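Lecture notes, part 5. Sequence design as translation. It can be helpful to think of inverse folding as translation between two languages: the language of shapes and the language of residues. The source text, in structure tokens, appears below.
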């Protein structure tokens, strides 16, 4: 089924992003900016460390990548390690960049787990690195409008020849029962979002992003599909930090062109230097969609299944989204319409 954007036709119950889908482009990434390499040691607090490193060696996993994962989940006051005995994994509800996304029960509460598959498109070593990058971005985050990260499920085959079926690696999140913002706006239910609802949603997204930017983290993939809604009031949860990067100084230099093309800033579309302004651009696109209840750049998306039409229009021709019609503003906000058009 073709989505309104023309680039992502996957229906999402709870979307944590898929950098291999038509709606999200990504090339291999070679590091995490701003973070010093972990020391080469094998003395984490993870109780099954020997099993973990034996598994890593047999699967060509970079030892330092696994070391950093084990260190992050097993040290400090807030341990993020989840043992298999604590969680019951249920049915798959979606597919993601790591593998499958499943419902689960964790300590009596419904959650979602993003499970690593041994057969991911980028290969297991690259997938483990991607898990490390997302874990590094998620671990310090605690905000009411960012998806709740519960921890990481870890299980490794016993050293010396355990079954590969004993392997489990996954990120566990709160369950958001309201789906994603894209579906709410464009899948026939946009009329259910009042102007007041949309203003609140916009404010909650902005509050979450201000918090993220205060930590010198760029999300890099802010889009309507990565805004989850939950509870009877459809409270916002910004999700999918798989492309998020912490940066030092004024700019972040990426070796990738990654993100959802419809929301990417000109410098992101062309692989330039990035800072938080790239997320501000994406937020602007989201605000336009929230006001108009129309998918951004729909005419360009229909021209092809990649970012090239956007590069030509936005970067080369400097095209911008049209100013919203004044009729879209309620009478109480009448003064905002001329200001929006002037901007």
């Amino acid at each position: 089924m073709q989505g309104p954007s023309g680039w992502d036709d996957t229906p999402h119950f709870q979307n944590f992003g898929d950098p291999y889908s038509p709606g999200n482009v990504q090339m291999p990434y070679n590091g995490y900016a701003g973070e010093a390499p972990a020391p080469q040691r094998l003395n984490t607090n993870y109780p099954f460390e020997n099993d973990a490193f034996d598994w890593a060696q047999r699967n060509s996993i970079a030892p330092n990548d696994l070391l950093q994962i084990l260190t992050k989940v097993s040290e400090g006051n807030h341990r993020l390690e989840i043992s298999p005995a604590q969680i019951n994994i249920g049915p798959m509800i979606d597919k993601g960049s790591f593998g499958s996304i499943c419902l689960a029960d964790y300590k009596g509460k419904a959650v979602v787990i993003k499970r690593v598959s041994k057969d991911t498109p980028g290969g297991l070593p690259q997938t483990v690195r991607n898990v490390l990058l997302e874990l590094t971005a998620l671990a310090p985050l605690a905000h009411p409008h960012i998806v709740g990260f519960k921890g990481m499920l870890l299980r490794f085959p016993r050293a010396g020849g355990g079954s590969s079926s004993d392997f489990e690696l996954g990120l566990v999140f709160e369950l958001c029962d309201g789906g994603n913002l894209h579906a709410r706006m464009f899948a026939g239910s946009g009329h259910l979002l009042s102007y007041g609802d949309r203003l609140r949603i916009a404010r909650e997204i902005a509050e979450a992003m201000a918090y993220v930017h205060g930590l010198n983290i760029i999300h890099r993939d802010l889009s309507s599909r990565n805004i989850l809604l939950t509870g009877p009031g459809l409270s916002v949860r910004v999700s999918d930090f798989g492309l998020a990067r912490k940066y030092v100084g004024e700019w972040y230099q990426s070796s990738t062109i990654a993100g959802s093309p419809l929301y990417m800033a000109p410098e992101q579309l062309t692989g330039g230097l990035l800072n938080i302004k790239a997320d501000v651009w994406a937020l602007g696109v989201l605000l336009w969609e929230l006001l108009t209840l129309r998918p951004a750049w729909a005419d360009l998306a229909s021209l092809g299944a990649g970012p090239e039409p956007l590069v030509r229009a936005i970067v080369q021709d400097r095209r911008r989204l049209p100013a919203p019609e004044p009729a879209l503003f309620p009478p109480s906000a009448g003064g905002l319409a001329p200001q929006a058009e002037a901007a």
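The translated text above is only one of many valid answers, since several sequences can fold into similar shapes. Residues 195-214 form the longest helix (20 residues).
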